[in-house]
Amino acid sequence: MTNSSQSQRPASSASESSVPTVRVALLGAGNVGAEVARILLTDAVELGERIGARPKLIGIAVRDVDSPRTVTLPLELFTTDADALIDDADVVVELTGGIEPAKTRILRALNAGKPVISGNKALLAQHGEQLHAAAEAAGTSISYEAAVAGAIPIVRPMLDSLSGDKVKRVLGIMNGTTNYILDQMDTTGASFDDALAEAQRLGYAEADPTADVEGHDAASKVAILGGIAFHSSYTFDDVYCRGITGVTAEDVEAARRSGFVIKLLGVAERVTEGEGDQAQEKVNLRVVPTMLPRKHPLAGVHGAFNAVFVEAENAGELMFYGPGAGGAPTASAVMGDLVAALRRSVAGGPGVGPTFHAGLPATGMDGVKTSFALTLLCPDRTGVLAEISSVFAEHGVSISTMQQRDLPEDPAHPGQGQAELRFVTHRARNADLVRTVEAIRQMDVVLDMRGLIRVENDN
Amino acid sequence: MTNSSQSQRPASSASESSVPTVRVALLGAGNVGAEVARILLTDAVELGERIGARPKLIGIAVRDVDSPRTVTLPLELFTTDADALIDDADVVVELTGGIEPAKTRILRALNAGKPVISGNKALLAQHGEQLHAAAEAAGTSISYEAAVAGAIPIVRPMLDSLSGDKVKRVLGIMNGTTNYILDQMDTTGASFDDALAEAQRLGYAEADPTADVEGHDAASKVAILGGIAFHSSYTFDDVYCRGITGVTAEDVEAARRSGFVIKLLGVAERVTEGEGDQAQEKVNLRVVPTMLPRKHPLAGVHGAFNAVFVEAENAGELMFYGPGAGGAPTASAVMGDLVAALRRSVAGGPGVGPTFHAGLPATGMDGVKTSFALTLLCPDRTGVLAEISSVFAEHGVSISTMQQRDLPEDPAHPGQGQAELRFVTHRARNADLVRTVEAIRQMDVVLDMRGLIRVENDN
């Protein structure tokens, strides 16, 4: 591969025959694939200078050659024979999505020692370990910057720049659709349904928004990024996942009144379970709607932008911010992986992937320390707050703040005033918080419970 | 180096003899060096798992073995014989600073094919090209994430993640001292002198703050990062540099009133000079106090934090944020480079550095398009604004906004009222802006000119 112009294949033109070329196969011509093809065709000379060999797009495998495309590409590049294309290439870029046939095709390339670039988060969050093992066995690499947070360089910085540090926690806004919806709700007071409709109108949300709004898309990214951060291998099923369909305009407004904003956060964090000799390090992976203080750097991430906030033992707090989706931005991430992989190949030497040596087990929510906000509707009479406070105390959960708001009296029932009590707890074990909430929900003085949401705070 | 336990050197203990080791030489035991030593000694086993060989700190070269240290390190590691230490090592970490003897020592290591990690921005901004050439000739690498923006991963993302994109502009808050001072002035209304004194009291500024407040430190970083971003080689002398000593509390307050904040920005941007066939791409490198709209992501970077904002053709707008200085954060950047370089060495294959193939010439300020804010003190009478506006127009500079503020009349001179006119221009060639400002300064109706500062705006 160092100099494929020395191979039996003739170079396609006289001007290209003087420089070595590397043969690139592209699988998929969707939004991102079409942009990658455009960049490869337009910038081949400049990219060749950077790589040390000129990348040559030899073909684009698609299901249907005659499908309409958003970007005009030479028709002769299209083929339905992905296997032949892979076998003919030096490097393979997989941008088809889905588990099969993507997985079989990627393994075909890796087993032949060809570097693979992929943006397939679902596949990586399910079979990442197998793909990495295949790459390592063949002395090549699989790279997937585009699979996590679109254009934002986060996979590579995590792999390389933070490789000498100990990551404590990763918090990310990793889905642009849900961030757009929550940001709309926050800035305009819109309901979830209205904000979703607006997102669909603008093309930020798909007709079937389930994968986004239920947090599944973010969960795949958390599994991938958490694995790299903690040198362990996780899958989608290791991620506790709650979407934003239950977040109401009232929740958003209540958060705003307390100086918070609600974001759908993907979190991967180190958790110690047990004590003394029994203490064991585990990793909690979750996607949950979360209240963030407005001064937190992630609180300022608006619209469909993404950002990943990393807390590391030595580096401290880092944030990576940028577009989380879109054809050209995601193509930039793919191209970065491609150029980096090709530079390595041209220079010689095997690929280097993440290590999963730590094997920290994924853990459920019980041991995670977090805090909750919740709003209770109660009769407006003395003793109610004392009664509720004692239930918190019984479960070992302490209250950080309480705000009471007297509601206007119902004229039909004079003398029976109601009050809204809004609590934010200190950090406590999630299991204790859940038990506290259940006990409070059963209390006679609690007429209604609303706005139950996790809080990331410094308390 | 793949397995130095197979070399003639005996491993230092029985437990270590079973895994390959790599021998690390450290030059310098200052703030950052001491933290790197501590991490290497504490985390060797974990780092070994990541690298595939255990890093062994074989010595620390210092000028004076008996100097007091902030971190307690084994005395037997210290030596004054840097050359012998380098010759005995597999990899060299240079954290001494200054041009010599650092340069000679780094070349000694590179020429012997040993990877070098350095945090020496002054050296890299002066002799970077020579050091890269030496590394490439010997098939090894020099890495320096720590030289730019402390703990923030920016060199490697720029080198690898953005290697398939075309960078248009890099804007960075790359000096924590000046950002702390400007942030204090903005949030408390303090004068420059008071904010500097506070920064010195808190250890954010040195007793002699020249290198920071005059922008020299940021200029070195701009030269280094601009070179990587534009695949060209620049030195400190290519950077137009203005510090913040002339920024007054009034400037900060005026900016605040218009919805702006003043930051010391390091900028590297692509500039096209000439037109048509004569058009030539160049790169302008500058460090200048700049007004930023409050909604710009860099405007929210407070205290001693750093951030780098990148505009790329496909990726769009990215931001990298984190601590720009400090022993442990900077050590994290050094360790990331070290682990990445060692992983490559252990896996086999040569190092890969930046390419400088583009050779875009650095250019002065004349052709740069920017806008200016300036405040004029004028007699409060009709016709003044028209007179001044015509001077802007004569020089081809158009006005974006004008705010007039009538000043209270001086009781001693009734009838001679004065007004403050605050202009922000649209983007124009810097040379035209400078000529406009000079012409306005000469006008009879202009009693005083203040708060002249560049603006980054979307207009």
From TrEMBL, chains A, B:
Residues 373-454 form the ACT domain. It catalyses: L-homoserine + NAD(+) = L-aspartate 4-semialdehyde + NADH + H(+); L-homoserine + NADP(+) = L-aspartate 4-semialdehyde + NADPH + H(+). The keyword Flavoprotein does not apply. Its cofactor is a metal cation. NADPH binds at residue 121. GO terms for biological process: methionine biosynthetic process; threonine biosynthetic process. The active site is at residue 221. L-homoserine binds at residue 206. Its EC number is 1.1.1.3. The keyword NADP applies. Keywords: Amino-acid biosynthesis, Methionine biosynthesis, NADP, Oxidoreductase, Sodium, Threonine biosynthesis. Pathway: Amino-acid biosynthesis; L-methionine biosynthesis via de novo pathway; L-homoserine from L-aspartate: step 3/3; Amino-acid biosynthesis; L-threonine biosynthesis; L-threonine from L-aspartate: step 3/5. Belongs to the homoserine dehydrogenase family. Catalyzes the conversion of L-aspartate-beta-semialdehyde (L-Asa) to L-homoserine (L-Hse), the third step in the biosynthesis of threonine and methionine from aspartate. This is Homoserine dehydrogenase.
